[in-house]
Amino acid sequence: MTDVSQSKPPSLYAAREPVFPRRVSGKFRTLKWWIMGITLAIYYITPWLRWDRGPALPDQAVLVDMANRRFYFFFIEIWPQEFYFVAGLLIMAGLGLFLFTAALGRVWCGYTCPQTVWTDLFILVERWIEGDRNARVRLFNAKWDARKIRLRLFKWTVWLLIAVATGGAWVFYFADAPTLLVDLFTLQAPLTAYASVFILTATTFIFGGFMREQVCIYMCPWPRIQGAMMDEQTITVGYRAWRGEPRGKHRKSAEAADLGDCIDCSACVNVCPTGIDIRDGQQLACITCALCIDACDDVMDKIGKPRGLIDYVTVEDQETETRGGTSVSIIRRILRPRIIVYTALWGAIGLGLIAALVMRTDLAFSIEPVRNPVNVVLSDGSVRNAYELRLRNMTGFDRDLEISLEGSRNMVLELQGQDTRSVTVPADETLRQRVYLTAPANSGAATAGATEIVMTVSDENSETTASEPTIFQGTGR
User: Which residues contact 110 (CB under 8 A, 6 or more apart)?
Assistant: First the structure.
C-alpha cells in the first residue's frame, strides 16, 4: 500500500521539449523569407531615412519626439491634440487583425508577428552555424566538449549582435538617429536610451533564441482570443484526414491498397516551428505558417500523389469533401458577410482619417477666458474681459498672425505687450498670448450677462484663418 503522505505530487508544469525545425523549401517558405526580409529592412532602415522639413524642424522621416510631444511621419506631423489620428490607426490595426483572422486564421502570427520574424532569423543563424535538424539534435544531445562550446558561443554571439541591433534600432525612432548613435558610443546618451537598448536586447535574445514557441503558446494572448474571430468557414491550415487515413508506409504489398496518402513520414512535424502534429487537428499552438504544407507537398510529389493533403482549407470544406462533395472556392469563402462588415468598418475608419488629414489646417488656436476676476469695470464705465490664447503654428517657418473679432461689435481688442493686433509665432511652436477685449460703457455687451463672440486668427502672408467662439461677460445690469 502506498503511503500517501510520502508520495510526491505531480508537477503542474511540463518540461520543455526542444524544437529543431528542419529546413524546407516551397512557395510558403519563400513567401516567409520575403516577408522576413522586407519587415526587417523596414524596421532597421526607417530611422535613417531623411526628410527635409526646414531649418526649424527635425529632418528624420519617422520620429516620435517625446520631448516636444510630436510624431513625424514623412510629410505628416501629429500634434498632441491630434491624438485621434493615432487612436484611429490603433483601431484600424485591431480591426485589421480581426479581419485577417476571420478570413485566414492566424496568418498574422505565421508571417508578420515580430516573434515569428525574429525567431525565423535566429533559426536561420542556428542552422547556418550548427547544421540542419539532425545535426542540431545530435549537438544538443552531445556532451559538452570543445566543439560544442565553440559552436554555441559563436551562435550566441551572433544572436547577441542581432539583439543589440534590434534594441538599438528601436531607440533611434525616438531621437535623431545619427546624433544618438554617436552619443551611445561616446557614453553621452541619456540613461533611458541605454536602459531601453538593454531591455530590448535581452528580450530579443531570450525570446527569439531560447523561448521561441513558448512565447506563442504560453505568453501570447492572441491564441486564446482568436477562437472568437474564427468559424467553420475560416480558411486555415488543415489536414485532409479523409484522404490521408489510415496512414502507413507505402510498400508493395496487398495492404498498401487500403492505406491513405499519408505515409507517416513526419515531415510536417519536423518542419513545424512549434513542434506540433497538424494531423491531430486544429490546435492552439498552430501559428498557420504553412511550412507543413510545403513539406507535405514535397513528399506527395516524390511518391506520385496529388498535392494538398495538408492545405489551406476550412472545417466546412473538410466535412464536405469527406462526404464526397466539392469545396467552395477561396473567393466565396472570403466574400461573406462577416468579412465584408469588418472590411467596411476598416475602410470607413481609414477614409475618415484620410479626410481629417486632408482637411486639417496648419494654423489653430484655443481660447481660455480669464475668470479671476470675471470682468473689470474701468473708470469710464467700460467693461474689460481678459483671455488666454494658445496660438499653434504647425509649419516649419515663423508666422505673423493677426488677431481680430468677427462682426461689427463696438469693442476694442488689445494684445498684452504688443502695440498692434499682430504677433509672431515661431516655427512649430505654441505661443501663449493674453488678449484684452473692452466693451464701451452702457453698450449691450457691457450691460448683458453674457454675449457670444467669435475671435479670428489670420496669417498676414496667406489666406489661412482660424476661428473660435467664446463668451464676453458683462455686468448683467
Answer: 32, 116, 287, 288, 289, 290
Cis amide leading into 21 (omega within 30) = no
* CA nearest neighbour of 264 among 238, 303, 213: 303
Task: Name the 3-class secondary structure at 271.
Answer: coil
Residue 242, CA atoms < 13 Å, CB-side half-sphere? 10
Rounded to 10 degrees, the C-alpha dihedral 338/339/342/346 comes to -170
Residue 290 · residue 237 · CB < 8 Å: yes
pLDDT of the residue at 75: 85
Cell of 306: 496529388
- Report the distance separating Cα 307 and Cα 207, nearest Å: 35
DSSP 112: T
DSSP state letter for 213? H
Rounded distance between C-alpha atoms, residue 370 and residue 387, angstroms: 5
Cell 494684445 appears where? Answer: 415
Phi-psi region for residue 304, left (φ > 0), alpha (ψ -120 to 50) or beta? left
Query: 2.60.40.10, 2.60.40.1930, 3.10.129.10, 3.40.50.300: which CATH number matches 363-473?
Result: 2.60.40.10
Task: Sketch the domain layout of the chain as residue ranges.
Answer: 27-82+106-217, 231-328, 363-473
Residues, the chain: 477
**pLDDT tens per residue, range 386-420:** 999 999 888 878 888 989 888 756 888 989 888 88
Per-residue pLDDT at 122? 96
Nearest to 383 by CA among 447, 435, 433: 447
Question: 389 is written with which cell numbers?
Answer: 490664447
| pLDDT 10s digits, 170-187 | 999 999 999 999 999 999
Does pTM top 0.85 for this prediction? no
DSSP run (H or E) holding 101 = helix 83-104
Cα 154 to Cα 149: distance, rounded to the nearest angstrom: 8
The residues facing 325 across adjacent strands are none
> What's the pLDDT band for 372 if we cut at 50, 70, 90?
confident
Q: How far is CA 406 from CA 234, 370, 391, 443, 454, in A?
A: 59, 20, 17, 17, 6
| C-alpha span between 357 and 268 (Å, rounded) | 48
Q: How far apart are CA 389 and CA 367, in angstroms?
A: 5
User: Which amino acid, 249?
Assistant: K
Residue 464 grid cell: 489661412
CA distance 351 to 357: 10
Between 463 and 437, the higher pLDDT residue: 437
Which stretches of 68-208 are assigned E, i.e. beta strand?
Answer: 70-73, 76-78
